[in-house]
Amino acid sequence: MKSKQPKWKKFHCPPLSASRKEQITHEANRACDELLRFSAGEAFSSTGSSLDSDEDQFQDGLKWEYTEQLESIRVEKVKVKSETKRGVYYFRGITQVEGAIEEIMELYDVDMAHPNMQLEKKLSPDILHSVVLYEILPYRPEESTVFIGIRWSAVRSPYVMVRNRDYCYLEIQRRFTLPDGRRGFARCLHSVKIKSCPDMEKSHGFVRGSMYRSGIVFIESKRDRKTLDIVQAVYTDLKGNVPQWVAAKGLRQRLMGLEHLKKYVNMKRVANQTFARRSQLMAPGKVKTCFVCVDDIGTFKRRYNCQKCGEVRRNALRRVKVTEEALKNRTAPVQLRYVFLALLLAVLFGLGVS
User: Fold this and answer.
1) What H or E segment, with its residue span, contains residue 288?
2) pLDDT interval class at 5 (50, 70, 90)
3) What is the mean pLDDT of residues 27-54?
4) CA-wise closest residue to 141 among 169, 179, 183
């Protein structure tokens, strides 16, 4: 029996005035400037680049503190000033993925006529529903400012006793190039209030939260342009009476979305690769270490050839966790490789690979 789908609100969005659109565009660009300076400022300061921002607090003196390691994601925090509070913490998750800027931009394609909610939920499993309310600047992937719009999203709470949250926010996507030639892409989210998106607590039970200068930044790595440095910044106010430990759980859940994104990008890349020829397959008997985890396979362990790259690994279908030490010791790019059939099923039909 199929589960009953919730009835989502149908928004009535009258046209915005030219002055209001101009105001939204300015606010979106300013938020994106601050996101880049705040979350990925090291990349810009190391190349001598400058961003147009009026906020001095996002320029210098940011001392990020290491918080924890969530699988391949390094979590850091910094204390910043707030208008209503003495100080609040701004978090970021840092990781890497093998891919190109164009591949990442495809994931955030905005199609007003045919929105891809299935893909959005794969990249962010805590998303319940999302709708673009206004298209301020239509999606144009060839431009530096790719897209500006106003979006509403409902987010699942990590605990049953805590109500789900919803957000009404500006979304801006931007391409940029650093002075050293490295390319980047940013997707910034910043809360906004509009009449066509009223509070939905009474009608749907959502508590309206706020997010400021949040989003995700992709920059080509200095060591290898085929690898992207990822920084996801989170600065949210959940509103309501939410215990600190619940808020921390929600933060981890949001940052772990990076693992879902990396998994999807890796699976899609491998699925698009051609099969290795028989002459390209490494001889299993002559290989002593696993190509993925760089550990000794062992004398009596079975060896398997990846049908995509031809390398030898010690596991057939199971995912292999790559340690930080293995990543540092390898000179070639390391990629999580799956047997092709399992990967293709996962990409096309959303099946999990355990």
Assistant:
1) none
2) low
3) 72
4) 183
Inter-axis angle of helices 257-272 and 340-349, nearest 10: 120
Question: CB 217: neighbour CB atoms within 10 A?
Answer: 25
Question: Which amino acid does the sequence have at 320?
Answer: V
Residue 137 parent element (H or E)? strand 127-137
Tally of helices (H runs) and strands (E runs) in the chain:
9, 14
**pLDDT, averaged across the chain:** 80
User: pLDDT-based confidence at 87, cuts 50/70/90?
Assistant: low
Any idea what the Cα angle at residue 113 is, between residues 111 and 117, rounded to 5°? 60
- Which one-letter amino acid corresponds to residue 278? R
State the pLDDT confidence band at 153, using cuts at 50, 70 and 90: very high
Nearest to 72 by CA among 269, 212, 178, 227: 227
Helix (H/G/I), strand (E/B), else coil: 94: strand
Question: What is the C-alpha to C-alpha distance for residues 243 and 226, in angstroms, rounded to an integer?
Answer: 41
Q: Is 129 helix (H, G, I), strand (E, B) or coil?
A: strand
- The span from the CA of 135 to the CA of 166, in Å, is 19
Q: Which of 58-62, 155-159, 288-292 has the least mean pLDDT?
A: 58-62
pLDDT attached to residue 334: 43
pLDDT cut 70: percent of the chain above it: 79
**Residue whose C-alpha is closest to residue 219's, from 53, 63, 97, 69:** 97
Domains delineated in the chain: 18-268 (3.30.530.20), 273-349 (3.30.40)
pLDDT for position 8: 78
Residue 263 tokens read as: 């998994």
Asked whether 318 and 354 are in contact (CB, 8 A), the reply is: yes
* Cβ neighbours, 10 Å, residue 94: 18
CB 103 within 8 A of CB 266: no
Q: What is the rounded CA–CA span in Å between residue 60 and residue 45?
A: 10
Cross-strand partners of 96: 229
